[in-house]
Structures are given as structure tokens and as C-alpha cells.
Amino acid sequence: MNSIAGWFVGNGLSVPSQDDLVETAIAGGLVLVALVVGLLTSRMIGQRLTDLWKAHVASHGEGLGPRMTSMVRHGLAALILALVESAYSWSPLAGVPIGLALGSAGALFVQQMLRGLGITRWISWIVATIIFVALFSRSVGGLDAITHTLDLVGFNIGKRRLSLLWLITIMITAVALVAIVRLANRVVAHSISRSRAFDPTQKLLAQKLASIGVIVAAFFIGIDMLNIDLTAFAVFGGALGLAVGFGLQKTVGNLIAGIILLMDRSIKPGDVIVVGDSFGWVNKIGVRAVSVVTRDGKEHLIPNENLMTQEVENWSYSDRNVRVRIPVSVAYESDLRVAQKLMLQAALDSPRVLDSPKPNVWLTSYGDYSVDHEILAWISDPESGVGNVRSDVLNRLWWMFKEHNIEIPFPQQDVRLRSVPSNAAAPPPASLSPHDPPSDA
Questions:
Q1: Which helix H or strand E contains 407, and what residues bound it?
Q2: I need a surface site. Which of 102, 189, 254, 266 has the fewest CB within 10 A?
Q3: Residue ranges of domains in the chain, CATH in brackets
Q4: How many other CB atoms are there within 10 angstroms of residue 108's CB atom?
Q5: With the C-alpha atoms ordered 220, 223, 224, 229, is the resulting torsion angle positive or negative?
Q6: Rounded-to-integer distance, Cα 341 and Cα 355, Å
Q7: Bond before 357 cis per omega within 30 degrees
Q8: What is the percent of the chain where pLDDT is above 70?
């Protein structure tokens, strides 16, 4: 005991009294209780909270779901330790175990939450380290000294002090606001997607507007937290207005066009559209462009403004039924009644062709070497393509024609040879040249 006291005196530290040691032991016991409570609680309700989160708050791909158990353990422990720290005026020695446990639990809780919200790993660990240092320093009574030291490293610009403390405050505020925005957007988007009062287009529009509202609110909250004067943005606002007027016309135009498309509901996710050479189904309507996925798996990004100014063919605007035209030709020697009956039967047998409206067969023209027909069949899933419907009907029709001896024509020409009669007059002989000898006749 005397050697320990000598070590404290030799290093310029006061020897802890018996009351300090008892207080430190009590603090250590409370830390252990807080950690055990957090562990047991996370095991009992962690999985339930994960299932509840996935079912009612966010989708199954949400990153916070798998981390819910760990967040409950560290968060509950940090909350109990914060209450323990605030409930009594602990000595600096007793504050060491409380500070270590509180800082570690708080840092791990923040790190797990930031990672679950998609914040980069190194940023989340930096923020967690700052949280640990702040909580531990506060527990042992040294937070004011740290903040004062950080504020000394810097310089003044006008009325504002630029220091390490200010930079750390900005970073923590920015990360916190980004995390809150992502969490709010995911919760609001999931809540809107589960609502039955909106159709898919209205849900998408509500999600976009809610996302913009959350970002604007977070911006002004951050400005207020950092005590930034809004009049400082007057010059920035003027420059932004000039940029929009000269260089960002297309960007702003696409943004407004996207909002109009969502409000107008003329193009919705899932619609099958044709824009120029692009044919496919609308995957999503973004802020800048509409994603159209073709049957080849290629994704075309078409600017929103193009859909407002160009002619767009929407196959599923008011009705998803689409008529497919399938040209078929038969030889002139074929029985047209049988051929037309087989065409109708081939269309009816195709699984994607609708029974109502009923398919039909039209005779369109008498060609040079064939009688041309057209099968008109209706489908209700144009996003699955129309070429495979034509292929299926024509494949069935091929074997039906084979069974009923219906000939499929091919280009051909008839050549007629005219014979010369035997009693026809012979052509007159060619005139003789003056130098040719006379004949003996």
C-alpha cells in the first residue's frame, strides 16, 4: 500500500483516499451492471426489433436491420451509464471506469448506426473516436480543457474563429445531418410505399417531394446549429441564379420535367414506351432522366425533357392490352378457308394471347406470288416483349400447315417459250456487196 502511495506522490498525484477507492469500486460495479443489462436486453428483444424494423419501418435491404441487436446492446448500456454519471458527482478516479465504458458504448452505438445508414467506414470510425474522447473526457472532468486547446489552434477571419474545434463541429454536424436525412428518407419512403391511398405514380411523386423537403429542412437546421448568418448566402444565391440561367438550364429543365411527369402520370414506372429508337419498360423516373430497360437487358437513360418535347408512344397509358400484328402468306393453290382457320387456331393456342379481345385474321392483299394475311392477336403484358409472341404463333402455324398441306409460297417467275411455225416466210437474204462474185444460180 505504501509503495502505491509513493508512486502517486512521485508522479505529482494525490493519493486516493479510502472513500475514493470505495466510490471507484461502486462505479465499476454499476458499469458491469449496465453492460450486463444491455447484453441481456439485446438478446431478448434485439431480434424482435429487427423483425419489426424490417416489417414496418424499412425494407429487407435496410442496413440497420442486421445491426439492431448490437445497437440495442451498446445504446442501452450507454443510456444507463449516462444516467449513472449524471445521478452523482463522482470523483475523477471513479469517473475513469464510467467514462471508459460510456465512451466505448456510445462510440460503438454511433459507429453501428452510421454504418447501417451507409456512411463510409472510415468516416464512421472517426466520428466514433471523437464521441469516445468527448464522453470519456466529460466523465473525468477534462472536456473543457480539450475544447479550449482545440479552439486555440486556429485563426480569425472577420468576426468568425476558424479552429480545429470549429472544423470538428462542422464534421460532426454534417455527418449527423446526413445520417438523419437518410434515415428519414428511408422511413418516409417505406411508409408511403405501404399506403393504399396512392397509386404507384403518386407514391413516387410523394417520395420525391418528401425527400426534397427533408433535405431542405436538414439544411436550415444545420445552418442554425452552426450559427451561420443567412445573409452570407446572398452572393451565393445570386451566383446560383446566374448559373441556372446560363449553364444549368438543361439540368433544371430535366428536374422540373421529371416532377411534371410524375404529377401528370402520363408515364409511370412499369409502362412500356417507345421513344425514338428506344423501346422498353420504364424502370424508374429519376431527377434527371427516365430509366428504360430494353428486352436485351440494356438500360437507356432518357432525359426527362426529351419525354416532354418529343413524341412518346406509350403502350400501357390507359390500357395494357396491345395488339400484335403477325403477317402470314400462303400460296394461291391453298385452301384459304382452311389456312385462315389454322391461323386463328395457332393464335388461340399461344399462351400469352388473350381470349378477349378475340384474335382475328385479315386477308390484306393479293401479292405477286402469294395471298397475304395478317393475324391480329392481343396481349396484356407488353413488357415481356412482342417478338416472342410472333415466334410462338408462327412456330405453331408451321406444323399446322405441314399437317394440312398448306403451301407457304416463295418468290418465283414463269418463263414462256414461243415456238415458230414451219410455214412461216423465211427472212430475205442479206444484200450482196459489189465485190462479191455472182452466184451460179
A1: none
A2: 266
A3: 17-193 (no CATH), 252-314 (2.30.30.60), 322-403 (3.30.70.100)
A4: 20
A5: negative
A6: 16
A7: yes
A8: 81
